[in-house]
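One thing: could you explain this record?
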Amino acid sequence: MRMTLERSIEGREGGSEDAIERARACVENLDAIERELEKDAASDRRAGMDEASKDAELARVQSEAEERERDPRVKALIEDAKTLAMAPEGTTRGRELTMAFAEKMERALALEPDFYQASLQLAMVYQAHGYVASAIERVTAAYDHTPGCFLAYALAGQMYEDVGLYNRAEEEYAKCVGVSFDFADAWVSLARLSVNKFGAISSAIHLMRVAKLGGPEAKFTKPGKHPLLLFSLAHALHLTGYSAEPTSLYTQALHAGAGVMAIYPLCKLANDCADDEGASMWAKTWRDARDACREDDSSADSFFASLEVFNAASAGPQWHEILNSKVRAYEIIANRDVDGLVRAPTLFTSDSLETLTESDEILDEVVVLKGAHAKFPGVVEEKINRVGVLKDFKAIITDGKARRTRGEIIAQRRVREVATDEFGRKCTVRVRACFVPDQAAADDVVLIAKSVCILSAASAYDKTADMASSEYDDKMYAREMTNRGLSGDSSATMREVDVKDACTRVMGIDDVSSDIIAQAEIVMRAFRDAVRDERNVIQDARYDAYAAVSAPLFLNLDFIVESGETPRAHFLGVGERPGFRLERERAFVRDVWSRVVDALDDDFADADARDDEFIKIVVKS
Protein backbone atom coordinates (compact mmCIF):
# COMPACT_ATOMS: atom_id res chain seq x y z
CA MET A 1 0.00 0.00 0.00
CA ARG A 2 2.83 2.39 0.89
CA MET A 3 4.49 1.76 -2.49
CA THR A 4 1.25 2.52 -4.36
CA LEU A 5 0.77 5.75 -2.47
CA GLU A 6 4.37 6.81 -3.05
CA ARG A 7 4.10 6.10 -6.79
CA SER A 8 0.91 8.12 -6.86
CA ILE A 9 2.65 11.07 -5.27
CA GLU A 10 5.76 10.90 -7.48
CA GLY A 11 4.03 10.34 -10.79
CA ARG A 12 0.69 11.95 -9.95
CA GLU A 13 -0.94 8.86 -11.32
CA GLY A 14 -4.71 8.63 -11.41
CA GLY A 15 -5.86 11.61 -9.49
CA SER A 16 -6.22 15.29 -8.74
CA GLU A 17 -4.18 17.46 -6.44
CA ASP A 18 -6.60 16.61 -3.61
CA ALA A 19 -5.99 12.92 -4.14
CA ILE A 20 -2.22 13.47 -4.00
CA GLU A 21 -2.55 15.43 -0.74
CA ARG A 22 -4.65 12.67 0.73
CA ALA A 23 -1.98 10.15 -0.34
CA ARG A 24 0.73 12.21 1.36
CA ALA A 25 -1.37 12.36 4.52
CA CYS A 26 -1.81 8.59 4.42
CA VAL A 27 1.95 8.06 4.09
CA GLU A 28 2.61 10.35 7.05
CA ASN A 29 0.01 8.51 9.09
CA LEU A 30 1.63 5.19 8.19
CA ASP A 31 5.02 6.54 9.29
CA ALA A 32 3.55 7.64 12.62
CA ILE A 33 1.91 4.25 13.12
CA GLU A 34 5.19 2.44 12.36
CA ARG A 35 7.06 4.62 14.86
CA GLU A 36 4.49 3.81 17.52
CA LEU A 37 4.69 0.12 16.69
CA GLU A 38 8.47 0.21 17.00
CA LYS A 39 8.15 1.89 20.39
CA ASP A 40 5.66 -0.75 21.51
CA ALA A 41 7.96 -3.52 20.28
CA ALA A 42 10.93 -2.01 22.14
CA SER A 43 8.78 -1.67 25.24
CA ASP A 44 7.74 -5.32 24.93
CA ARG A 45 11.35 -6.38 24.56
CA ARG A 46 12.30 -4.44 27.69
CA ALA A 47 9.37 -5.92 29.59
CA GLY A 48 10.47 -9.37 28.53
CA MET A 49 13.99 -8.85 29.85
CA ASP A 50 14.67 -10.17 33.32
CA GLU A 51 15.99 -7.88 36.04
CA ALA A 52 19.59 -9.01 35.55
CA SER A 53 19.44 -8.23 31.81
CA LYS A 54 18.00 -4.79 32.49
CA ASP A 55 20.71 -4.04 35.01
CA ALA A 56 23.38 -5.28 32.62
CA GLU A 57 22.01 -3.14 29.80
CA LEU A 58 21.88 -0.07 32.03
CA ALA A 59 25.43 -0.70 33.25
CA ARG A 60 26.64 -1.08 29.67
CA VAL A 61 25.06 2.19 28.55
CA GLN A 62 26.43 4.00 31.61
CA SER A 63 29.90 2.54 31.08
CA GLU A 64 29.94 3.60 27.43
CA ALA A 65 28.92 7.14 28.38
CA GLU A 66 31.67 7.35 31.02
CA GLU A 67 34.21 5.91 28.57
CA ARG A 68 33.47 8.68 26.04
CA GLU A 69 34.19 11.34 28.67
CA ARG A 70 37.34 9.70 30.07
CA ASP A 71 40.72 11.48 29.96
CA PRO A 72 42.86 10.04 27.10
CA ARG A 73 45.81 9.73 29.47
CA VAL A 74 43.73 7.56 31.78
CA LYS A 75 42.67 5.39 28.85
CA ALA A 76 46.31 4.89 27.84
CA LEU A 77 47.36 3.90 31.38
CA ILE A 78 44.46 1.46 31.69
CA GLU A 79 45.37 -0.17 28.37
CA ASP A 80 48.99 -0.51 29.52
CA ALA A 81 47.80 -2.08 32.78
CA LYS A 82 45.60 -4.55 30.89
CA THR A 83 48.56 -5.57 28.76
CA LEU A 84 50.63 -6.25 31.87
CA ALA A 85 47.77 -8.26 33.40
CA MET A 86 47.69 -10.73 30.48
CA ALA A 87 50.35 -13.35 31.17
CA PRO A 88 51.61 -15.41 28.19
CA GLU A 89 49.84 -18.72 27.68
CA GLY A 90 51.17 -21.45 29.94
CA THR A 91 52.68 -19.03 32.47
CA THR A 92 51.48 -17.33 35.64
CA ARG A 93 51.56 -13.63 36.37
CA GLY A 94 54.51 -12.93 38.68
CA ARG A 95 54.69 -10.50 41.56
CA GLU A 96 56.70 -8.01 39.47
CA LEU A 97 54.06 -7.84 36.75
CA THR A 98 51.34 -7.51 39.35
CA MET A 99 53.10 -4.58 40.99
CA ALA A 100 53.66 -2.97 37.59
CA PHE A 101 49.94 -3.39 36.88
CA ALA A 102 49.11 -1.78 40.23
CA GLU A 103 51.47 1.13 39.56
CA LYS A 104 49.75 1.91 36.22
CA MET A 105 46.33 1.73 37.83
CA GLU A 106 47.39 4.00 40.71
CA ARG A 107 48.63 6.60 38.20
CA ALA A 108 45.33 6.41 36.32
CA LEU A 109 43.38 6.87 39.56
CA ALA A 110 45.55 9.85 40.52
CA LEU A 111 44.34 11.53 37.33
CA GLU A 112 40.72 10.42 37.71
CA PRO A 113 39.94 9.52 41.35
CA ASP A 114 36.24 8.90 40.65
CA PHE A 115 37.01 6.06 38.19
CA TYR A 116 35.47 3.61 40.64
CA GLN A 117 35.59 0.58 38.30
CA ALA A 118 39.39 0.78 38.15
CA SER A 119 39.59 1.39 41.89
CA LEU A 120 37.55 -1.75 42.65
CA GLN A 121 39.57 -3.85 40.22
CA LEU A 122 42.82 -2.70 41.80
CA ALA A 123 41.44 -3.41 45.28
CA MET A 124 40.68 -6.99 44.29
CA VAL A 125 44.18 -7.43 42.86
CA TYR A 126 45.69 -6.16 46.11
CA GLN A 127 43.48 -8.50 48.10
CA ALA A 128 44.36 -11.53 45.96
CA HIS A 129 48.07 -10.93 46.61
CA GLY A 130 47.71 -10.43 50.35
CA TYR A 131 47.95 -6.64 50.54
CA VAL A 132 44.87 -6.32 52.70
CA ALA A 133 45.47 -2.81 54.02
CA SER A 134 46.04 -1.45 50.49
CA ALA A 135 42.95 -3.26 49.22
CA ILE A 136 40.73 -1.76 51.92
CA GLU A 137 42.24 1.68 51.38
CA ARG A 138 41.55 1.51 47.66
CA VAL A 139 37.96 0.24 47.98
CA THR A 140 37.06 2.87 50.59
CA ALA A 141 38.53 5.53 48.30
CA ALA A 142 36.13 4.31 45.62
CA TYR A 143 33.03 5.14 47.64
CA ASP A 144 34.58 8.33 49.07
CA HIS A 145 34.81 9.69 45.52
CA THR A 146 31.63 7.98 44.29
CA PRO A 147 29.20 7.74 47.24
CA GLY A 148 26.59 6.00 45.09
CA CYS A 149 28.86 3.05 44.29
CA PHE A 150 27.12 0.41 46.40
CA LEU A 151 29.46 -2.35 45.19
CA ALA A 152 32.36 -0.58 46.92
CA TYR A 153 30.58 -0.76 50.29
CA ALA A 154 29.80 -4.45 49.76
CA LEU A 155 33.40 -5.24 48.80
CA ALA A 156 34.75 -3.29 51.77
CA GLY A 157 32.45 -5.27 54.04
CA GLN A 158 33.70 -8.54 52.61
CA MET A 159 37.33 -7.49 53.09
CA TYR A 160 36.79 -6.49 56.71
CA GLU A 161 34.96 -9.76 57.29
CA ASP A 162 37.87 -11.70 55.77
CA VAL A 163 40.32 -10.28 58.32
CA GLY A 164 37.96 -10.83 61.25
CA LEU A 165 36.87 -7.21 61.76
CA TYR A 166 33.19 -8.10 61.92
CA ASN A 167 31.85 -4.87 63.41
CA ARG A 168 33.48 -2.87 60.63
CA ALA A 169 32.11 -5.31 58.08
CA GLU A 170 28.61 -4.89 59.50
CA GLU A 171 28.93 -1.10 59.17
CA GLU A 172 29.94 -1.37 55.50
CA TYR A 173 27.08 -3.74 54.65
CA ALA A 174 24.65 -1.38 56.42
CA LYS A 175 25.98 1.56 54.37
CA CYS A 176 25.49 -0.53 51.25
CA VAL A 177 21.79 -1.18 51.85
CA GLY A 178 21.43 2.48 52.81
CA VAL A 179 22.73 3.47 49.38
CA SER A 180 20.98 0.67 47.47
CA PHE A 181 18.10 -0.99 49.31
CA ASP A 182 17.51 -3.22 46.30
CA PHE A 183 20.98 -4.82 46.47
CA ALA A 184 19.93 -8.14 48.00
CA ASP A 185 23.47 -9.52 48.44
CA ALA A 186 24.21 -6.92 51.12
CA TRP A 187 21.08 -7.92 53.07
CA VAL A 188 22.16 -11.56 52.85
CA SER A 189 25.65 -10.65 54.11
CA LEU A 190 24.21 -8.68 57.03
CA ALA A 191 21.93 -11.56 57.97
CA ARG A 192 24.80 -14.07 57.66
CA LEU A 193 26.94 -12.01 60.04
CA SER A 194 24.09 -11.66 62.51
CA VAL A 195 23.43 -15.41 62.58
CA ASN A 196 26.81 -17.07 62.00
CA LYS A 197 29.05 -14.65 63.88
CA PHE A 198 26.94 -12.77 66.43
CA GLY A 199 24.32 -15.45 67.09
CA ALA A 200 21.59 -12.81 66.86
CA ILE A 201 19.01 -14.97 65.09
CA SER A 202 15.98 -12.89 66.11
CA SER A 203 17.64 -9.67 64.87
CA ALA A 204 18.55 -11.37 61.60
CA ILE A 205 14.93 -12.51 61.11
CA HIS A 206 13.67 -8.95 61.67
CA LEU A 207 16.32 -7.61 59.27
CA MET A 208 15.39 -10.06 56.50
CA ARG A 209 11.68 -9.39 56.94
CA VAL A 210 12.34 -5.68 56.35
CA ALA A 211 14.32 -6.53 53.21
CA LYS A 212 11.69 -8.98 51.94
CA LEU A 213 8.87 -6.44 52.38
CA GLY A 214 10.79 -3.94 50.26
CA GLY A 215 10.89 -1.01 52.65
CA PRO A 216 8.10 1.15 54.17
CA GLU A 217 6.30 1.54 50.84
CA ALA A 218 7.18 -1.91 49.51
CA LYS A 219 8.69 -0.39 46.37
CA PHE A 220 11.92 -2.45 46.39
CA THR A 221 11.23 -5.90 45.01
CA LYS A 222 14.61 -7.57 44.41
CA PRO A 223 15.42 -8.67 47.98
CA GLY A 224 12.05 -10.39 48.30
CA LYS A 225 12.77 -12.45 45.20
CA HIS A 226 16.40 -13.30 45.98
CA PRO A 227 16.81 -17.06 46.54
CA LEU A 228 19.54 -16.69 49.18
CA LEU A 229 17.56 -14.17 51.21
CA LEU A 230 14.47 -16.38 51.09
CA PHE A 231 16.54 -19.41 52.07
CA SER A 232 18.37 -17.53 54.85
CA LEU A 233 15.09 -16.29 56.33
CA ALA A 234 13.59 -19.79 56.13
CA HIS A 235 16.69 -21.30 57.76
CA ALA A 236 16.71 -18.75 60.60
CA LEU A 237 13.03 -19.44 61.31
CA HIS A 238 13.71 -23.17 61.09
CA LEU A 239 16.40 -22.77 63.77
CA THR A 240 13.91 -21.07 66.07
CA GLY A 241 11.57 -24.05 65.88
CA TYR A 242 8.94 -22.90 63.37
CA SER A 243 7.75 -25.22 60.63
CA ALA A 244 4.88 -23.71 58.59
CA GLU A 245 6.52 -20.43 57.55
CA PRO A 246 9.94 -22.00 56.88
CA THR A 247 8.23 -24.57 54.66
CA SER A 248 6.62 -21.79 52.63
CA LEU A 249 9.85 -19.80 52.38
CA TYR A 250 12.00 -22.83 51.48
CA THR A 251 9.50 -23.57 48.69
CA GLN A 252 9.70 -19.96 47.47
CA ALA A 253 13.51 -20.13 47.57
CA LEU A 254 13.44 -23.36 45.56
CA HIS A 255 11.25 -21.77 42.90
CA ALA A 256 13.48 -18.68 42.88
CA GLY A 257 16.52 -20.81 42.04
CA ALA A 258 18.09 -21.76 45.39
CA GLY A 259 18.72 -25.26 44.12
CA VAL A 260 19.04 -28.53 45.98
CA MET A 261 19.92 -26.89 49.32
CA ALA A 262 16.24 -26.00 49.79
CA ILE A 263 15.04 -29.58 49.23
CA TYR A 264 16.57 -31.29 52.27
CA PRO A 265 15.05 -28.82 54.81
CA LEU A 266 11.64 -29.34 53.18
CA CYS A 267 12.10 -33.09 53.54
CA LYS A 268 13.26 -32.70 57.15
CA LEU A 269 10.34 -30.43 58.11
CA ALA A 270 7.83 -32.79 56.51
CA ASN A 271 9.41 -35.70 58.37
CA ASP A 272 9.36 -33.82 61.70
CA CYS A 273 5.70 -32.91 61.18
CA ALA A 274 4.78 -36.56 60.44
CA ASP A 275 3.89 -35.69 56.87
CA ASP A 276 4.99 -39.02 55.39
CA GLU A 277 3.70 -38.24 51.92
CA GLY A 278 5.48 -34.89 51.79
CA ALA A 279 8.70 -36.34 53.21
CA SER A 280 8.64 -39.13 50.63
CA MET A 281 8.02 -36.67 47.80
CA TRP A 282 10.88 -34.35 48.80
CA ALA A 283 13.26 -37.27 49.42
CA LYS A 284 12.53 -38.54 45.91
CA THR A 285 13.07 -35.01 44.52
CA TRP A 286 16.45 -34.86 46.25
CA ARG A 287 17.51 -38.27 44.92
CA ASP A 288 16.40 -37.35 41.40
CA ALA A 289 18.53 -34.19 41.57
CA ARG A 290 21.49 -36.23 42.85
CA ASP A 291 21.16 -38.83 40.11
CA ALA A 292 20.76 -36.17 37.40
CA CYS A 293 24.06 -34.55 38.34
CA ARG A 294 25.92 -37.81 37.62
CA GLU A 295 25.03 -37.51 33.94
CA ASP A 296 25.42 -33.80 33.30
CA ASP A 297 28.42 -31.63 34.29
CA SER A 298 26.47 -28.36 34.42
CA SER A 299 23.84 -29.96 36.65
CA ALA A 300 26.61 -31.32 38.88
CA ASP A 301 28.20 -27.87 39.22
CA SER A 302 24.93 -26.23 40.28
CA PHE A 303 24.10 -29.19 42.57
CA PHE A 304 27.36 -28.94 44.52
CA ALA A 305 27.43 -25.13 44.46
CA SER A 306 24.06 -25.17 46.21
CA LEU A 307 25.32 -27.66 48.81
CA GLU A 308 28.38 -25.47 49.34
CA VAL A 309 26.12 -22.56 50.31
CA PHE A 310 24.16 -24.81 52.67
CA ASN A 311 27.45 -25.96 54.21
CA ALA A 312 28.28 -22.34 55.09
CA ALA A 313 24.81 -21.83 56.59
CA SER A 314 25.22 -24.94 58.73
CA ALA A 315 28.26 -23.48 60.52
CA GLY A 316 26.53 -21.62 63.33
CA PRO A 317 28.26 -19.18 65.70
CA GLN A 318 29.55 -22.07 67.81
CA TRP A 319 31.49 -23.34 64.78
CA HIS A 320 32.33 -19.90 63.41
CA GLU A 321 35.06 -19.16 65.94
CA ILE A 322 36.66 -22.57 65.46
CA LEU A 323 36.69 -22.27 61.67
CA ASN A 324 37.97 -18.69 61.58
CA SER A 325 40.24 -18.24 64.60
CA LYS A 326 43.47 -20.25 64.50
CA VAL A 327 44.15 -19.38 68.13
CA ARG A 328 40.74 -20.59 69.32
CA ALA A 329 41.00 -23.82 67.32
CA TYR A 330 44.37 -24.64 68.90
CA GLU A 331 43.06 -23.82 72.39
CA ILE A 332 40.11 -26.20 71.99
CA ILE A 333 42.36 -29.03 70.81
CA ALA A 334 44.88 -28.45 73.62
CA ASN A 335 42.14 -28.44 76.28
CA ARG A 336 40.69 -31.76 75.12
CA ASP A 337 43.75 -33.61 73.83
CA VAL A 338 44.98 -34.55 77.29
CA ASP A 339 47.44 -37.14 75.96
CA GLY A 340 49.02 -34.68 73.50
CA LEU A 341 48.44 -36.94 70.50
CA VAL A 342 47.82 -34.04 68.11
CA ARG A 343 51.15 -32.53 67.09
CA ALA A 344 50.82 -28.92 66.02
CA PRO A 345 53.50 -26.27 65.46
CA THR A 346 53.33 -23.98 68.49
CA LEU A 347 51.49 -20.69 68.08
CA PHE A 348 52.78 -17.48 69.62
CA THR A 349 50.26 -14.71 70.28
CA SER A 350 50.49 -11.26 71.81
CA ASP A 351 49.27 -12.77 75.10
CA SER A 352 51.75 -15.65 75.18
CA LEU A 353 54.68 -13.35 74.38
CA GLU A 354 53.95 -11.26 77.46
CA THR A 355 55.12 -14.15 79.63
CA LEU A 356 58.47 -14.52 77.85
CA THR A 357 61.65 -12.80 79.01
CA GLU A 358 64.68 -11.84 76.97
CA SER A 359 66.53 -14.88 78.34
CA ASP A 360 63.99 -17.41 77.06
CA GLU A 361 65.55 -19.70 74.48
CA ILE A 362 62.22 -19.93 72.70
CA LEU A 363 62.75 -16.39 71.41
CA ASP A 364 65.41 -17.85 69.10
CA GLU A 365 62.90 -20.22 67.47
CA VAL A 366 62.35 -19.76 63.74
CA VAL A 367 58.70 -18.80 63.16
CA VAL A 368 56.33 -17.87 60.34
CA LEU A 369 54.38 -14.65 60.86
CA LYS A 370 50.72 -14.75 59.83
CA GLY A 371 47.22 -13.66 60.78
CA ALA A 372 45.15 -15.17 63.59
CA HIS A 373 42.07 -15.18 61.35
CA ALA A 374 41.79 -18.11 58.94
CA LYS A 375 41.56 -15.91 55.85
CA PHE A 376 44.12 -13.30 56.92
CA PRO A 377 47.52 -14.06 55.34
CA GLY A 378 49.61 -11.97 57.76
CA VAL A 379 50.33 -8.77 55.92
CA VAL A 380 53.15 -7.00 57.68
CA GLU A 381 55.20 -4.31 55.96
CA GLU A 382 53.97 -5.52 52.58
CA LYS A 383 55.18 -9.08 53.12
CA ILE A 384 52.87 -11.99 52.32
CA ASN A 385 54.78 -14.16 54.80
CA ARG A 386 57.54 -13.14 57.17
CA VAL A 387 59.94 -15.81 58.38
CA GLY A 388 62.60 -15.28 61.00
CA VAL A 389 63.51 -15.48 64.66
CA LEU A 390 60.67 -14.91 67.12
CA LYS A 391 62.44 -12.15 69.09
CA ASP A 392 62.67 -10.05 65.91
CA PHE A 393 58.90 -10.06 65.62
CA LYS A 394 57.97 -9.61 69.27
CA ALA A 395 57.19 -5.91 68.93
CA ILE A 396 55.12 -6.44 65.78
CA ILE A 397 53.03 -9.22 67.32
CA THR A 398 52.28 -7.21 70.45
CA ASP A 399 51.41 -4.05 68.51
CA GLY A 400 47.84 -3.29 69.56
CA LYS A 401 47.24 -0.86 66.72
CA ALA A 402 48.09 -3.51 64.10
CA ARG A 403 45.63 -5.92 65.69
CA ARG A 404 42.79 -3.38 65.57
CA THR A 405 43.31 -2.34 61.97
CA ARG A 406 44.40 -5.55 60.30
CA GLY A 407 43.45 -8.42 62.56
CA GLU A 408 45.64 -10.03 65.21
CA ILE A 409 49.09 -11.12 64.10
CA ILE A 410 50.51 -14.41 65.37
CA ALA A 411 53.61 -16.53 64.81
CA GLN A 412 53.74 -20.27 64.19
CA ARG A 413 56.88 -22.32 64.78
CA ARG A 414 58.39 -23.66 61.57
CA VAL A 415 58.60 -27.43 61.15
CA ARG A 416 62.07 -28.54 60.12
CA GLU A 417 62.69 -31.10 57.37
CA VAL A 418 59.26 -30.98 55.80
CA ALA A 419 58.62 -33.91 53.46
CA THR A 420 58.27 -33.07 49.77
CA ASP A 421 56.34 -34.70 46.94
CA GLU A 422 57.93 -36.74 44.16
CA PHE A 423 58.85 -33.52 42.33
CA GLY A 424 60.66 -32.02 45.31
CA ARG A 425 57.89 -29.54 46.22
CA LYS A 426 56.60 -28.84 49.71
CA CYS A 427 53.09 -30.14 50.09
CA THR A 428 50.10 -30.18 52.42
CA VAL A 429 47.88 -33.18 53.08
CA ARG A 430 44.27 -32.00 53.24
CA VAL A 431 41.96 -34.39 55.07
CA ARG A 432 38.23 -34.13 54.42
CA ALA A 433 36.01 -34.53 57.44
CA CYS A 434 32.31 -34.14 58.11
CA PHE A 435 30.30 -33.66 61.30
CA VAL A 436 26.67 -34.82 61.25
CA PRO A 437 24.80 -33.65 64.36
CA ASP A 438 21.72 -35.34 65.74
CA GLN A 439 18.99 -34.12 68.06
CA ALA A 440 20.26 -36.76 70.48
CA ALA A 441 23.87 -35.72 71.09
CA ALA A 442 24.89 -39.32 71.72
CA ASP A 443 24.09 -40.10 68.08
CA ASP A 444 26.37 -37.44 66.59
CA VAL A 445 28.60 -38.85 63.85
CA VAL A 446 31.97 -37.76 62.49
CA LEU A 447 33.15 -39.09 59.15
CA ILE A 448 36.53 -38.92 57.45
CA ALA A 449 37.03 -39.57 53.75
CA LYS A 450 39.54 -42.18 52.66
CA SER A 451 40.80 -39.91 49.91
CA VAL A 452 42.88 -36.81 50.67
CA CYS A 453 43.92 -33.81 48.61
CA ILE A 454 47.63 -33.11 48.12
CA LEU A 455 48.40 -29.41 47.66
CA SER A 456 51.90 -28.93 46.27
CA ALA A 457 53.85 -25.68 46.06
CA ALA A 458 54.42 -24.23 42.61
CA SER A 459 58.21 -24.61 42.73
CA ALA A 460 60.66 -27.19 44.03
CA TYR A 461 61.97 -26.73 47.57
CA ASP A 462 65.55 -25.47 47.78
CA LYS A 463 66.94 -27.15 50.88
CA THR A 464 70.15 -25.13 50.57
CA ALA A 465 68.37 -21.85 51.34
CA ASP A 466 70.16 -20.10 54.19
CA MET A 467 68.15 -18.44 56.96
CA ALA A 468 71.23 -16.47 58.01
CA SER A 469 71.76 -15.02 54.54
CA SER A 470 72.04 -11.23 54.53
CA GLU A 471 70.17 -11.05 51.24
CA TYR A 472 66.46 -10.83 52.04
CA ASP A 473 64.20 -12.24 49.35
CA ASP A 474 60.45 -12.28 50.04
CA LYS A 475 59.78 -14.87 47.37
CA MET A 476 62.49 -17.23 48.59
CA TYR A 477 61.41 -16.92 52.23
CA ALA A 478 57.76 -17.56 51.41
CA ARG A 479 58.64 -20.63 49.32
CA GLU A 480 61.53 -22.14 51.23
CA MET A 481 61.03 -21.18 54.86
CA THR A 482 57.32 -21.53 55.55
CA ASN A 483 55.77 -24.81 56.63
CA ARG A 484 53.92 -25.41 53.38
CA GLY A 485 55.78 -23.28 50.86
CA LEU A 486 53.13 -21.67 48.69
CA SER A 487 50.86 -24.71 48.78
CA GLY A 488 48.11 -22.59 50.30
CA ASP A 489 48.38 -20.18 47.38
CA SER A 490 46.19 -20.16 44.29
CA SER A 491 49.19 -21.32 42.25
CA ALA A 492 49.34 -24.63 44.14
CA THR A 493 48.61 -27.84 42.27
CA MET A 494 45.95 -30.14 43.73
CA ARG A 495 45.38 -33.85 43.25
CA GLU A 496 43.40 -36.52 45.02
CA VAL A 497 44.91 -39.77 46.28
CA ASP A 498 44.04 -42.49 48.80
CA VAL A 499 45.27 -41.48 52.24
CA LYS A 500 47.64 -44.46 52.34
CA ASP A 501 49.26 -43.35 49.07
CA ALA A 502 49.93 -39.82 50.32
CA CYS A 503 53.09 -40.88 52.15
CA THR A 504 54.36 -43.97 50.34
CA ARG A 505 53.65 -43.02 46.73
CA VAL A 506 53.66 -39.20 46.76
CA MET A 507 56.26 -38.37 49.41
CA GLY A 508 58.27 -41.57 49.28
CA ILE A 509 58.43 -41.99 53.05
CA ASP A 510 57.11 -44.49 55.59
CA ASP A 511 53.33 -44.62 55.81
CA VAL A 512 51.98 -42.35 58.57
CA SER A 513 48.42 -42.27 57.24
CA SER A 514 47.03 -43.98 60.34
CA ASP A 515 48.62 -41.23 62.45
CA ILE A 516 47.04 -38.54 60.26
CA ILE A 517 43.60 -40.16 60.56
CA ALA A 518 44.01 -40.60 64.33
CA GLN A 519 44.90 -36.93 64.77
CA ALA A 520 41.99 -35.89 62.53
CA GLU A 521 39.63 -37.95 64.67
CA ILE A 522 40.87 -36.31 67.88
CA VAL A 523 40.57 -32.85 66.32
CA MET A 524 37.00 -33.51 65.22
CA ARG A 525 36.06 -34.94 68.61
CA ALA A 526 37.48 -31.85 70.30
CA PHE A 527 35.57 -29.52 67.98
CA ARG A 528 32.38 -31.50 68.45
CA ASP A 529 32.69 -31.35 72.26
CA ALA A 530 33.25 -27.59 72.12
CA VAL A 531 30.19 -26.80 70.03
CA ARG A 532 28.06 -29.23 72.03
CA ASP A 533 29.01 -27.66 75.37
CA GLU A 534 25.75 -26.53 77.01
CA ARG A 535 27.46 -23.36 78.21
CA ASN A 536 28.36 -22.41 74.65
CA VAL A 537 25.38 -20.10 74.06
CA ILE A 538 25.91 -17.04 71.85
CA GLN A 539 23.06 -14.53 72.24
CA ASP A 540 19.94 -16.47 71.20
CA ALA A 541 21.83 -19.16 69.26
CA ARG A 542 22.11 -22.63 70.78
CA TYR A 543 23.72 -25.47 68.90
CA ASP A 544 20.77 -27.71 69.74
CA ALA A 545 18.82 -25.77 67.11
CA TYR A 546 21.37 -26.63 64.42
CA ALA A 547 21.45 -30.23 65.60
CA ALA A 548 17.67 -30.38 65.15
CA VAL A 549 18.12 -29.54 61.46
CA SER A 550 20.74 -32.34 61.28
CA ALA A 551 22.53 -30.92 58.22
CA PRO A 552 26.14 -32.14 57.76
CA LEU A 553 29.05 -29.74 58.09
CA PHE A 554 32.11 -30.44 55.92
CA LEU A 555 35.60 -29.30 56.99
CA ASN A 556 39.14 -29.44 55.62
CA LEU A 557 41.95 -30.32 58.04
CA ASP A 558 45.49 -29.52 56.86
CA PHE A 559 48.55 -31.55 57.83
CA ILE A 560 52.22 -31.51 56.86
CA VAL A 561 54.63 -34.40 57.32
CA GLU A 562 58.06 -34.01 58.86
CA SER A 563 60.58 -36.32 57.21
CA GLY A 564 63.61 -37.89 58.84
CA GLU A 565 64.25 -41.27 60.37
CA THR A 566 60.81 -41.28 61.98
CA PRO A 567 58.33 -39.30 59.83
CA ARG A 568 55.63 -37.51 61.81
CA ALA A 569 52.48 -35.69 60.81
CA HIS A 570 51.77 -32.19 62.15
CA PHE A 571 48.31 -30.61 62.24
CA LEU A 572 48.48 -27.12 60.71
CA GLY A 573 44.87 -26.08 61.24
CA VAL A 574 41.47 -25.91 59.63
CA GLY A 575 41.88 -25.38 55.90
CA GLU A 576 39.86 -23.14 53.65
CA ARG A 577 36.13 -23.74 53.32
CA PRO A 578 35.41 -26.79 51.12
CA GLY A 579 34.61 -25.94 47.51
CA PHE A 580 33.14 -29.30 46.39
CA ARG A 581 34.93 -29.14 43.02
CA LEU A 582 37.11 -32.26 42.85
CA GLU A 583 35.79 -35.64 41.78
CA ARG A 584 36.40 -37.71 44.90
CA GLU A 585 35.50 -34.80 47.15
CA ARG A 586 32.14 -34.67 45.40
CA ALA A 587 31.74 -38.41 45.82
CA PHE A 588 32.34 -38.02 49.55
CA VAL A 589 29.84 -35.15 49.82
CA ARG A 590 27.25 -37.00 47.74
CA ASP A 591 27.60 -40.15 49.86
CA VAL A 592 27.28 -38.29 53.16
CA TRP A 593 24.21 -36.41 51.97
CA SER A 594 22.67 -39.64 50.65
CA ARG A 595 23.11 -41.16 54.10
CA VAL A 596 21.60 -38.06 55.76
CA VAL A 597 18.50 -38.15 53.55
CA ASP A 598 18.11 -41.92 53.97
CA ALA A 599 18.61 -41.59 57.73
CA LEU A 600 15.32 -39.68 58.01
CA ASP A 601 13.73 -43.14 57.82
CA ASP A 602 16.59 -45.19 59.31
CA ASP A 603 19.64 -45.05 61.54
CA PHE A 604 22.45 -42.99 59.96
CA ALA A 605 25.09 -45.71 60.13
CA ASP A 606 22.70 -48.23 58.56
CA ALA A 607 21.60 -45.95 55.72
CA ASP A 608 22.51 -47.10 52.24
CA ALA A 609 25.76 -45.56 50.94
CA ARG A 610 26.17 -44.73 47.27
CA ASP A 611 29.99 -44.62 47.13
CA ASP A 612 31.02 -46.51 50.24
CA GLU A 613 34.65 -46.83 49.21
CA PHE A 614 34.99 -43.07 49.60
CA ILE A 615 33.86 -42.87 53.20
CA LYS A 616 34.94 -44.11 56.59
CA ILE A 617 32.98 -43.62 59.80
CA VAL A 618 35.56 -43.02 62.51
CA VAL A 619 33.49 -41.60 65.35
CA LYS A 620 30.08 -42.26 66.75
CA SER A 621 29.69 -40.73 70.19
The longest strand covers residues 445-456. The mean pLDDT is 81.
